[in-house]
Write a structure and sequence with these properties.
This protein is an alpha/beta fold. The chain contains 3 helices and 8 strands; from the N terminus they run E-H-E-H-E-E-E-E-H-E-E. The longest helix is centred in the first third of the chain and has 14 residues.
Length: about 150
């Protein structure tokens, strides 16, 4: 499993998330997004609909009867395994800065986690980074923002 840490400095999660979502869908994968606050989920949803004038990224809030058909599904928290993510997502964005180590369990079937964290969660991110250092089968990548670009720093 690959875990990408994104330190949000210039842009909030709702600005970065559509970029990650678009690349995920282009690669033929489905995406789950965890955002515990309703306002953040609403802002993410708005950005997925309106980021580009000529297109939108189809998605829904989890809990509907068509969850399995959604390429992007937004959750208030991680579902209980082994149910995992109703849309079959193997890629996950943690958009609320709250690391959830249980998501590393194989029952979730994840291949990649994008962990977006705000500056006030840097200590939690560092602890999470360190905790993954010696775990078999996990690769870590750290991204920081330089101007409008994201640069891999570790």
């Amino acid at each position: 499993m690959r875990v990408d840490f994104y330190q949000l400095t210039r842009d909030p999660a709702e600005k970065l998330l559509p970029v990650l979502a678009e690349k995920t869908l282009e690669a033929g994968n489905r995406l789950a997004v965890i955002a515990s606050e309703e306002l953040l989920r609403d802002n993410i949803s708005d950005q997925l609909w309106t980021r580009k004038a000529e297109s939108f990224l189809a998605h829904d809030i989890a809990g509907g009867e068509n969850d399995a058909r959604q390429p992007i599904l937004l959750f208030p928290d991680a579902p209980d395994a082994p149910q995992a993510f109703a849309n079959g997502a193997q890629f996950l964005v943690i958009a609320d800065s709250k690391w959830r180590p249980d998501l590393l369990q194989g029952a979730y079937g994840l291949e990649r986690i994008f962990y977006l964290f705000a500056p006030d969660h840097i200590d939690e991110a560092r602890q999470s980074w360190k905790s993954l250092k010696d775990q078999d089968g996990i690769t870590r990548h750290y991204w920081r923002q330089e101007g409008r670009r994201w640069i891999e720093a570790g």
